[in-house]
Amino acid sequence: MSSTNINQQYYLSQIGITTWQERAQGNTKSQQQAEQANTWKDLIKQVTTCQRCALSQTRKNAVFGVGNQQADLVIVGEAPGAEEDRRGEPFVGRAGQLLNEMLLAIGLARETVFIANVLKCRPPNNRDPSKQEVATCTPYLEQQLTMLQPKAILAVGRVAAHHLLGIEDAMASMRGKQLLFAPTQTPLFVTYHPAYLLRKPSDKRKAYLDLLKIKSFLVSEDLHSL
User: Can you give the residue ranges of every domain in the chain?
Assistant: First the structure.
């Protein structure tokens, strides 16, 4: 067994999965963003200095997002939590560690994807975002996705999925399907939020199956681009 497979088996065991279904990986993506660097920097400045809603008065840091600007996959959560607000980075702490392990279980490192949230600022007491807050903040995410041009979006958690899709369906009806983020016409998939999986580890296998579907989709997109 190769060292890569050994590493994958380890991360699978860390998230409670004991089997591994190996799939081919694709890495091809056109390099197209050098000329957009200034625009990206401008967008970062817009987000980090934003005063468009009252959340700007209670945040410590706006959380722009982190990762590879040429990523095939963008992961979108609901909003920053307390630790994310403190550090200015999405998906840190225990939930972030589990997300990293979930990605590694399908052969993706955190550094190869881009991670963001629907909201860039933390709602007080981690309450659900309001519709007005989402309406005010979503254009930033749309601009990010327009610049990044990923092959797919992974919405983690019910709240993020609802806001991205404009629906209020149950998780069971959203998971396992190829959906669409309409503003950028980007294929979108839904799975459980890592924080939820920490509370209910029995659903980790379902999340792993969701990730395999995404991996399969990305591989098929790579093959079509050859």
Answer: 3-13+36-225
pLDDT in tens, 155-187: 999 999 999 999 999 999 999 999 999 999 999
Distance (Å) of CA 116 to CA 1, 29, 99, 106: 35, 20, 13, 20
Do you know the residue count of the chain? 226
CATH fold, domain 3-13+36-225, is Uracil-DNA Glycosylase, subunit E (3.40.470)
Range list of H helices, 37-165: 37-48, 82-87, 93-105, 131-148, 158-165
**How far, in Å, are 6, 49, 156, 174 from residue 162 at the CA level?**
37, 27, 10, 9
CA–CA gap between residue 139 and residue 57 (Å, rounded): 20
